[in-house]
Structure formats: structure tokens, C-alpha cells
Amino acid sequence: MSSIQVREMHRSDWGRVRDIYKMGIEGGIATFETKVPNWEEWNKSKLTYGRLVAEIEANVAGWVALTPYSSRQVYKGVVELGIYVDPDFQGRGIGSALIESLLKICQKEGVWTMQAGIFPENIASLALHQKFGFRVVGRREEIAQLHGEWKDVLLLEKKL
């Protein structure tokens, strides 16, 4: 089995990051997003730290990035993570490698709460987050529609 290398994401990774994000959108259980944003939109919405890619044999196989929970100063230590793995590479420990690295960065950056919103049917993502100590703190029922269908979202959090 090839080893996984986790490193900081660079602007030059955007093409592959975008492609993996598109696969997540098309899968229908990863995000309410319906189209991939351009680099400028994506870049502006994410924190400057905690942007990581995981590579196998120099191929970007997954990525993770953080979004601030709020612009209010009192929430500066609360972040939301988004993690995406190419379906061809799922089940190979990429998600775990990304979260392990991300947790170290968040601790250094003074993050005190990490959260994630996950569709209940995304069993793999739920299991991955729970493996790292995220716990379900609520269920937002019929919070939004995706392709005309009401969807629930489970809210998970981890205290650091």
C-alpha cells in the first residue's frame, strides 16, 4: 500500500482540489453546494491555515480546509471543517491522515471547537469524524433543499 503524504495546499493544487470537490457535489451526500466555486470565491471563504492535501504517489487524493464559524471575535476559536476524498481513493486512510494533521494545526492556532455539518446518509464521513472524537450535538431537520428534496444535517463538534 502506498504511503500518504499530507502537506499544505498550494494555489497550484486548485485544479485537483476543484475536481475532488466536484465529485463530492455530484455524489449528493457531501454538501449543499451545487456548483464548484472559482478559486477566488473558494479562497476568500476559507481560513488561511488548515488547508491541506493528501497525496498518494504525488497524486492529490483528498483535501481539507477550514471555514470560520463567525466573523465575531468571540468565536475566533471555532471553525468548521470540510473534507473531501476522491472516491477512487476512499477507504485508504486519507481522511484519517488529513484530520490527524488538521488537529495538530488547530491546536497550534488556538482553535477550541471544531465542527462539521454532515448529512445523516453520509455514513463514512460520520464514522471518520466520530473516530476522532467528534460527537453529534444536534440534528437540523429539513434545514435546506437539495435538488428539490428536503435534507437534514447532523451537527458534530469536537472540543480541543
UniProtKB/TrEMBL annotation:
Gene Ontology MF terms in the entry: acyltransferase activity, transferring groups other than amino-acyl groups
Name under which the protein is recorded: GNAT family N-acetyltransferase
InterPro entries from the UniProt entry: Acyl_CoA_acyltransferase (IPR016181), GNAT_dom (IPR000182)
Domain N-acetyltransferase: 4-160
Keyword match Nucleus: no
Xref: PANTHER family: N-ACETYLTRANSFERASE, UPF0039 PROTEIN C11D3.02C
Transmembrane segments: none
Keyword Amino-acid biosynthesis set for record: no
UniProt keywords, alphabetically: Acyltransferase, Transferase
Record Pfam families: Acetyltransf_1
Coiled-coil boundaries: none
Gene3D superfamilies: 3.40.630.30
